[in-house]
From TrEMBL:
Tagged with keyword Metal-binding: no
Membrane-traversing stretches: none
Lineage of producing organism: Eukaryota, Metazoa, Chordata, Craniata, Vertebrata
Location within or outside the cell: Cytoplasm, Cytoskeleton, Cilium axoneme
Protein name as it appears in the record: Dynein light chain
Function: Force generating protein of respiratory cilia. Produces force towards the minus ends of microtubules. Dynein has ATPase activity.
Entries under CDD domains matching the protein: DLC-like_DNAL4
GO cellular component, one term: axoneme
GO biological process: microtubule-based process
InterPro entries for the chain: DLC_sf, Dynein_light_chain_typ-1/2
Quaternary state and interactors: Consists of at least two heavy chains and a number of intermediate and light chains.
Coiled-coil region(s): none
Assigned protein family: Belongs to the dynein light chain family.
């Protein structure tokens, strides 16, 4: 993911996870809708603890990070 997009996405993830600290679905929805508007569709978001994943994504359009130690956020684009 390009540096500028990565920084913006990380800030968005932190904001969403803080705003919806008790509702991962709402946080994921906020991130997805914002990413779709800002960087074009089809972004996907998974937020939670203890999950595995196998995805297909566009080159340089994947971000996987931890928030608060145990909460993982995976954001990717696949059209």
């Amino acid at each position: 993911m390009p540096e500028e997009m990565r920084v913006e996405t990380m800030e968005l993830c932190v904001t969403a996870c803080e705003k919806f600290s008790n509702n991962n679905e709402s946080a994921a929805k906020m991130i997805k809708e914002t990413m779709d508007k800002k960087f074009g569709s089809s972004w996907h978001v998974v937020i939670g603890e203890g999950f595995g994943f196998e995805i297909t994504h566009e080159v340089k359009n994947l971000l996987y990070l931890y928030f608060g130690g145990t909460l993982a956020v995976c954001v990717w684009k696949c059209s």
